[in-house]
Amino acid sequence: MELLLQKFSEVSFLSGIPSALLFVFAATLIAVSLFMFVAVNAIVAVYAERKISAFMQDRLGPMGQGVGLHAGKWGLLQTVADAIKLLIKEDIIPSLADRKLFILAPFILFIGAFIVFVGIPFNQHILVADFNIGVFYIIAMSSIGVIGIILAGYGSNNKWALYGAMRSAAQIISYEIPLALSLLTVIMLVGSLKMQDIIIAQHGLIWGILPNWFIFNNPFTFIAFFIFFISGVAEVNRTPFDLPEAESELVAGFHTEYSGMRWAFFFLAEYANMFIVAAMSAILFLGGWQSPIPGYMDSPAWGLFWFMGKAIFLIFVMMWFRWTFPRLRTDQLMQMCWKYFLPISFINILGVGLWDLWLN
Amino acid sequence: MGADIIFWMVVALTVGSAFLVVLSQNLIYSAMALLFTFMGVAGLYVFMMADFIAATQIVIYVGGILVLIIFGIMLTQRIRDVRISHTSMQRGIGGVVVALIFLGLIRMIRTSPWHLESSPEIEGTVAGIGKLLMVEYLLPFEVTSVLLLAALMGAAMLSRRGD
């Protein structure tokens, strides 16, 4: 953001414009480009998800059909066509739904996911704002989305939607705790909440050969990475934690009554949240934009490549989960969180503290 | 200049949605408006350079307390039938009490010595808060945690009474 404003001030024909207006212009530019990123991310991820699921189940997935190839070669344009279809679909609001809440809910969910992107560093320079409280900001903003889910369930005036929303809220609140606790292990080692500080602290080698990423730093952060990632998958309500939208019991859960563009916002938010979980795991435990071979290929362009590579790999792992594991029961879900993840997270924090004291 | 406009927008959001919380006939709309009030208050904290408190405000109040409030509303049977009346009941006495409190608050705001800084420096507040909690205010911090633990155990005991 500051970099962009500074670049603006260097351009001669913009010098006559007041700084407040320039600020608004820069903010709009950033917001639009982030929105483009979120939209493209969703379109590519939906296509990848359909193809990956198809290959895992020995199918072909979306293909260009017939002579006209109207969905492109290998069905590459399938999700683009789907997006256009969603845009021109009729906007249906059930007559017995709570109209205001029904309309408001997808926006709250989407905004909760969207503003998190402000704090995510894509490489050494592409970062909208490096907050002093970086990681905490992201945790705080991603807790807004759950309100949107609850309102969607309540506003739909549909029992499946309400069940889905209740399950989702219970799940998200529960898994937020091990998520935040395993994140603390990294913050204890870095001593800062700034995103760039966390990434820079992972520079260099450890044990002689491995990159000094926090996943390799000590046994406790190694465990913390897996707790963080699994809790993150639970936070975005994906299989095996997709009880809120379990299609075999709840039709589609909290977004049962939604269609067209409103439904698309739920999907945009879900894929944006997937990216956030993958990106946060990559930043906190896998070195963010740091190259796996320290000192080589670590220019800003390569930084973007490494960061996106790590994030995309983790998104692939989430899809892999989805098409491999069966859904958990509610009691298993809660047992896993409260009886296993929570105690292990506490031991992790203690362990990291002792490790740090012992080594330093 | 730009910051001023944003400040007054945040103030309008906070106060406006707070009015909605009080005046809405429907409990769930009140809860909804409370979301925007909390966001507005977090924004005001940002203007006071208290970034950590702002994020904490959102985590605790939006992510925790508001979700529990909405949960409570949804679990209550026939909540849509409940009409909250805020229209009647002893307007005269109420008005006098409100006016007195308002005057008292105004007097307090006008007379108390505010610690003003023309340009507070933006720096990390997290380390400072941590040191204060662990050194100067250690006893209140620990007492609060014991209190919360007791509340937690009490809630668990109440919910298990049916067994």
In short:
With 360 residues, chain A is an all-alpha fold.
Q: Rg of chain A to the nearest angstrom? A: 22 Å
First CA to last CA of chain B: what distance? Answer: 62 Å
Radius of gyration of chain B: 20 Å
Mean pLDDT of chain A: 82
Give the CATH level 1 class of the largest domain in chain B.
Mainly Alpha
How many β-strands of chain B, per DSSP? Answer: 0
**Number of helix segments of chain A?**
14
Backbone shape of chain B: globular
Could you give the order of the helices and strands of chain B?
Answer: HHHHHH
The CATH superfamily name of the largest domain in chain B is: NADH-ubiquinone/plastoquinone oxidoreductase chain 6, subunit NuoJ
Helix content of chain B: over 70%
Q: What is the CA-CA span between the terminal residues of chain A? A: 37 Å
Bin the strand percentage of chain A: under 5%
List unreliable stretches of 5+ residues of chain A.
none
Determine the most extensive contact between two protein chains.
A-B, 33 and 26 residues
> Could you say which structural class the secondary elements and strand pairing of chain A correspond to?
mainly alpha
CATH topology description of the largest domain in chain B: Four Helix Bundle (Hemerythrin (Met), subunit A)
Task: Explain what this protein looks like in three dimensions.
The complex is a heterodimer of chains A (about 350) and B (about 160). Chain A is mainly α. Chain A has 2 domains: about 1-10 and about 15-90, no CATH class; about 100-360, no CATH class. Chain A is built from 14 helices and 2 strands. In chain A, helix 2 packs across helix 13, helix 4 packs parallel to helix 12 and helix 7 packs parallel to helix 14. The longest helix of chain A is centred in the first third of the chain and has 38 residues, at about 20-55. Chain B has about 160 residues and is an all-alpha fold. Chain B folds into 2 domains: about 1-85, Four Helix Bundle (Hemerythrin (Met), subunit A) (Up-down Bundle); about 125-165. Helix content of chain B is about 75%, strand content about 0%. Chain B contains 6 helices and no strands. Chain B has helices at about 1-25, 25-45, 50-75, 90-110, 125-135, 140-160. Chain B is globular, with a radius of gyration of 20 Å. Chain B starts with a helix and ends with a helix. The interface between A and B is medium-sized, with 33 and 26 residues.
